[in-house]
Amino acid sequence: MNDTSVTLEESWKTALAGEFASPYMQQLKIFLVEQKQLGRRIFPKGGEYFRALDLTPLAKVKVVILGQDPYHGVGQAHGLCFSVRPGVRIPPSLVNIYKEMETDLGISPARHGFLEHWAKQGVLLLNSVLTVEESQAASHQGKGWERFTDAVIRKVNDECEAVVFMLWGSYAQKKAAFVDARRHLVLKAPHPSPLSAHNGFFGSRHFSKANAFLQTHGRAPIDWQLPASP
């Protein structure tokens, strides 16, 4: 996964050149190649590992939403946290995200889970780990992705102004603990999973708070209403 082999949006490719050249990323590339040689199916497909970065250039980041791992079911993951491909059943956590949006903004829940409309407006939908083996949850944790996505978050923190970080659950909150809350808006809530959403995710009003902050800082708000058909 050296710099010359990566197809990536140019601003991110430049900002992360040092990461791609580093030994840990070389080791991660070797690991992924070996897994594929062993016949293991990796999600998302290779061209979508960095889809979140491709759709949301560094200078255009307005909101960061952090996930943990890609979905590990066939046809689900496509490189954006919480998002699934058109035609795929909406996962439970995203169902709860839609419920909170309806309460907060009066937006009727979409009938699909495809979130590229958000990403194209500046919502960086970043998983901490960018690959997973089919049906093996968390199978690629500890292989180097976490260090890479830490670098992504650090670039946003250091180089962007007035970004909203939506940190849902303790994992996301720990991962982005270094974000400068004097320059950015850090919103924290329990994870939208059915196991925890009733502990404070519902009623958190993160979507309206994000738009109010963006507008206060002269930035266009996010249109959270997803298209009827993706």
UniProtKB/TrEMBL annotation:
Family: Belongs to the uracil-DNA glycosylase (UDG) superfamily. UNG family.
Known EC number: 3.2.2.27
Pfam family, one: UDG
Catalytic activity: Hydrolyzes single-stranded DNA or mismatched double-stranded DNA and polynucleotides, releasing free uracil
Alphabetical UniProt keywords: Cytoplasm, DNA damage, DNA repair, Glycosidase, Hydrolase
GO molecular function: uracil DNA N-glycosylase activity
SMART domains: UDG, UreE_C
Positions annotated as active site in the UniProt record: D69 (proton acceptor)
Protein name as it appears in the record: Uracil-DNA glycosylase
Primary site of residence: cytoplasm
Family matches, as PANTHER family: URACIL-DNA GLYCOSYLASE
Purpose of the protein: Excises uracil residues from the DNA which can arise as a result of misincorporation of dUMP residues by DNA polymerase or due to deamination of cytosine.
